[in-house]
C-alpha cells in the first residue's frame, strides 16, 4: 500500500516529523510511506494557480499515485499551521489530488490535548466541497505530552500510545481497501 505522508511542521526538530518517521519505520512491512514536501511551497496566490510551481506539481504527482494519505499536524493557536493550510489551498485549486483520497490524521503536541483542536479544524477543511477527501471516521491519532513519549532516537516509548496507533493504522488499512 502506497502512502503519501504530509507533515504540517517546517521545524527541523519537529515532534510531528518524528512521529511520521516512526510510523514510516513501524509499518514498513504493510505501508510504503513516501514523504511529500510542502514547506517549499510559495505562499498561495490565485494569480499563479494556472501555473503551479514545481514543488506543488511534485506533491500532486506523489499524492495522486498513492493509495492513501497520512497528515501529521501540530496545533498552532488551536488550528493547523499556515504551512499546511497553504499546501491545502494550493491543492484545492490545482486539480486537488486529495479529492476522494483516503486520509488518516495524526498529531503530536507537548500539551495534554495532543492537537485535538487543530485536528477538528483539519477534518472540517478536508470535508469542504473544495477538498472532499475521505477522512478515516471515528479514528484519530492524538499524542499529547509527546516530549515524554519519544526518545532521542525517535522511538515512541509509551506502549499505550504505540498500541493505540497500531489499532488506528489497522483501521486505516481497511478504510483504504474500502475506498480504492
Ligand atoms: C504552539 N503550540 C501549541 N500547542 C498546543 O497544544 N496548542 C496550541 O494552540 C499551540 N499553539 C502554538 C502556536 C505557535 C505559533 C507555536 C509555534 C506553537 C506548541 C506546539 O504544540 C509545539 O511547539 C510543537 O512542538 C509544534 O510541533 P512540532 O514543530 O514539534 O512538530
From TrEMBL:
Keywords: Oxidoreductase. It comes from the Bacteria. Signal peptide: none annotated. Residues 1-145 form the NADPH-dependent FMN reductase-like domain. GO terms for molecular function: oxidoreductase activity. Its EC number is 1.-.-.-. Belongs to the azoreductase type 2 family. This is NADPH-dependent FMN reductase.
